[in-house]
Amino acid sequence: LPQRLAALATTAQEEARQSQQHLQAQQQEVTRLQEQLSRARQDGERWASALQRAQREALEREATRGAEQARQQELIRDMKGRLLELLREKDALWQKTEGIDTPMPSPVPRDVGFCSRCQKDFRLLSRRYNCRLCQGKVCHTCSVDVSKQGRCCLLCYQQKHLQGT
């Protein structure tokens, strides 16, 4: 019996040693897993911080883009308004210049003995006038008195009168 008890004690010691080794291995595994968990938490915190920073930057970019878009829309509105003003001004100028397409009368040589408009012969009773605008020779019928400035031919007078309105 003492031998049997010694064998049982040896077996129990061996089992206790194996259990202790198994416990140490499990403790090492727990320590390794705790370190991994700690690293994973740190990574998670870094990723959460990076995500918050990216969201904040995205919101700032969106706000900047919204402000830029509003500024561009205002600029477009201003440009459309200016375009309308220019179109109105162009139309007004076009209306003022409509009908001015007629060419200016060409100057007539000075030594002509006929009216440059009606071809009437200048004689003793038909006086010759110099048009103050085109310098042509015209008779009394084909000219207009423009007060102190002298006389001008009807064509120059009509063109000048249309430009003034």
Task: Walk me through what this model shows.
With 165 residues, the chain is mainly alpha-helical. It folds into two domains: 1-96; 114-164. Helices cover 65% and strands 6% of the residues. The chain is built from two helices and four strands. The protein has helices spanning 2-97, 154-164; strands at residues 129-130, 137-138, 143-145, 151-153. The strands form two sheets. It has a two-stranded antiparallel ribbon with strand order 1-2. Strands 3-4 form a two-stranded antiparallel sheet. A hairpin with a 6-residue loop joins strand 1 (129-130) and strand 2. The chain is rod-shaped, with a radius of gyration of 55 Å. The model has no long low-confidence stretch (mean pLDDT 86).
Low-confidence stretches: none
Distance between the termini: 144 Å
Helical stretch count?
A: 2
Shape: rod-shaped
Structure classification = mainly alpha
Give a brief description.
The chain has helices at 2-97, 154-164, and strands spanning 129-130, 137-138, 143-145, 151-153.
What is the fold's blueprint, element by element?
Elements: H1 2-97, E1 129-130, E2 137-138, E3 143-145, E4 151-153, H2 154-164
Antiparallel strand pairs: 1-2, 3-4
Features of the shown structure:
metal-binding, mainly alpha, Znf_RING/FYVE/PHD, 65% helix, two-stranded antiparallel ribbon, 4 strands, 165 residues, zinc-finger, zinc ion binding
